[in-house]
Every structure is written in structure tokens, then in C-alpha cells.
Amino acid sequence: RRTQVGIVGAGPAGLALANALTRQGVDCVVLERASRVRVEGRQRAGLVEDRTVRWLRSQGLADRLLVEATRHDWCDFRCLGHTVRVDYGAYSGGRQHYVYPQQSLVRDLVATLEKAGSPPFFSHTVRAVTNITGRRARLECEEGMEIECDYVVGCDGFRGISRAALPATGHRVHNRRYPYDWLTVLAEVDRPAEGVRYAVHRAGFAGMMPRGPRLSRFYLQCPPGEPVTAWPARRIVAELRTRLADGDPAGVPAIGALPEVRMLRMHSSVLTPLRHGRLLLAGDAAHVLTPSGAKGMNLAIADAAAAADALVARLRDGDEGPLAGYSAARLADVRRVLGFSEWLLALLHLPADPAADPAKELAERLATVRRLATPGARARAFAHRYVGSGVR
Ligand code: RFL
User: Might you give the EC number(s) for this enzyme (predicted)?
Assistant: First the structure.
């Protein structure tokens, strides 16, 4: 079997890329290890950035999102018993987040590929990507299928195998481990979270993200390396209330069952460069950020958009330029977003240093968030970077 572009992985990156290529008449094949039910059921991201929605729209992929998503243009910071509302919509010229679960977007993207007659091959595990510097790259599946490709795009997430195809030298991985972990929880709630709430608290950070009318995602800072078993449901709910409400019980919905509780080892990892020969990397396969700032899925789709443009230029028009610039252009964006995400992490976590004075640290943070809520250059810069307006 032959194709122009072989895509490993049917997450947001692989599916967005396949849709864009198919729309432009470039032949591609998506191979996905998991079953369709599993891929369409994975609950992860929920905040879709302004620039992501604009791109999806331009590709005819946002019809359902535009009808069903709720929009958000403010977030609350809770610190020292004060709630500071940051109206980032107002400071970014009216830009908004769209709250639309990742699994709904994934479902939409699978459906459009199906309609176009080129659905992903689910339950097909790629075992190896070979010959990436030869005349044609090759994808080998455990199920026996082999595909020759002009180009391969590894969209197989952080634990994928595409990275293994890179030669031993000529690339680098920049890893960073943070001095805390996050418990991530999906919880049933009695009313929807009206918006994102970040609590900077003496006991540690806690966050609440809207996901739907009866479900919210919560984050709780924990000591690094702590096992998830240290957090029975009752402790989670009590700690969320302490940190998120912080004297304002009305600010937090009642929390019921917890359908998902996981410990997230907080780290980031960026691979450079993002292309070697006929292999391009996109999404979490290329870079993993912490969930702070809700950037991962948005970066994955921005990679897919750039990869699609580059591959269409090369395969349809014979123009090598955009492909040659893919890695540098995407890494510049990734570094900018990573910088923002780390700045936000530093704001939300008190230093582990025992010599630090928590009262002073908290007062400083309150002053910082108040500046984000006061008209001016700082508020505008935060708003644009947070909402992902595409303005630098
Ligand atoms: P994915 O979604 O991990 O998809 C990779 C796919 O590749 C498949 N695969 C293989 N297929 C074939 N052969 C192999 N050998 C394969 N190996 C792997 C896998 O089965 C899978 O289907 O990567 P992609 O497409 O790059 O998308 C990345 C996003 O999923 C990720 O960045 C976000 O979920 C991150 N993230 C968030 N991002 C946001 O933009 N906004 C958010 O609000 C947000 N919240 C989150 C998040 C991630 C979270 N977790 C899972 C840490 C909240 C959480 C809790």
C-alpha cells in the first residue's frame, strides 16, 4: 500500500492534519492503536483557544463546536480571601475561549474523515517508522499492514513510537521536572463552573475548569512523587473546598462522585528539531506541557495546521520552503507558549523553599493578579497570551 502522507495517531493532531490534507486533495492514511470507542471516549482537554477555533472554522470543522460550545472570557483568581476577576475578553479585543470537550472535537474530526471516505484505521498499532531518509518512508503495523509514504507525521502522543525513528544524534530533548505534582480529577457537580478559578493558597494550588453542566475538572497541587492512593475521595473534596472556596463557599459548586482521579507527574518536554528527513513530529509527540494554561491540544492543532500547509505546498505545488521552515516556526510558537505556561505555574505555586515567607508570597501574588485585572499593557499581554489570540 502507498500513500502521500502516513499519520501515526488519531488524537487531535493526527485527525486535524488528516482533515486538512484530505480537504486539499492530498492522500493520507491515519493509523491508530486504540479502538474507535476508546479514542472517542478519552476525556482530556476542554478549553479551545480563539486561534484554534478560527482555524477549525476555516477548514469547515467547527460547525458543531460553534453551536454547542459555551464561551468564556474571564477567569477568577482566589488569593488571601479575595476573588480577583480577570476579564481577559475585554483586554484582548473581545476574544474568547470555547469550552468544548476534547472527545467531542475528536468525534467531529473522525466523522468528517469518514464522510470524505478516508476514516482512520483504528486498532492498528504502528510498530516502526523506517527509511525516513530514503526515497520513501515506511510504516510497519503489528497487524501486518505496511505503508510506503512520501512523508510520515508522528502524531502519536508522548508515549508514541515515532520519536524512536530519529537517529541517535542530531536532535535533543529538553526536559523539565517541576517540584510538585497535580492530582487531576473529573467530578460531578451540582451546577456548572461558571468559569475557570485558580486558587493560590497556603496549602497549595487548586484549580477548577468548566467542562459541562454536570461535570468539572479540578486540579490539586501535591508533593512531588505522592501516590494517588494518598488521596481518597473524601480528602480530595475537603481539600478542594478549603483551597478553592477559601472563605467563599458560594464560589464553588457542591462536588459529588469523582469518575476520574489521576496523579499527573508535572513535567514538560520539548524535542528539537521537529523534522528529520521524511518524518515530521506534531502535538504531544513533539512537546508536552503541563495543563496550566490549557495549551496542549491547542498547540497540537496549530502544529497540524502548519504541517498541513507545508505538506500541501511540497506535494501539490513542489514548494519545499514551508516544509524546510516547519520545525523552526513551530518551535518558536511552542517556546512562547511554554514560557507563558511556566510563568503561570510560578504565579500559582508558592516556592518550596522553607525560608520563604508564605504571607509575603501570597501578598505578592495578590498584587500581581490585581495588575492583570487593571487596564494596561500587562493586562493586555496576559489576555492575549491566555486566550491564544495569535497576537504576540
Ligand atoms: P494524543 O491525544 O495523545 O493522541 C495520540 C494518539 O496516538 C495513538 N498512538 C498510536 N497509534 C498507532 N501506533 C502507535 N504506536 C501509537 N502510539 C500512540 C494514541 O493511542 C493516541 O490516540 O496526542 P495529540 O494528538 O498530540 O493531542 C494532544 C492533546 O491530547 C493533549 O495535549 C491535551 O489533552 C492536553 N490537555 C489540555 N490541552 C488543552 O489544550 N486544553 C486543556 O484544557 C487540556 N487539559 C490536557 C488537559 C491533558 C490532560 N492529561 C491527559 C494530562 C487535561 C489533562 C488531564
Answer: 1.14.13.2
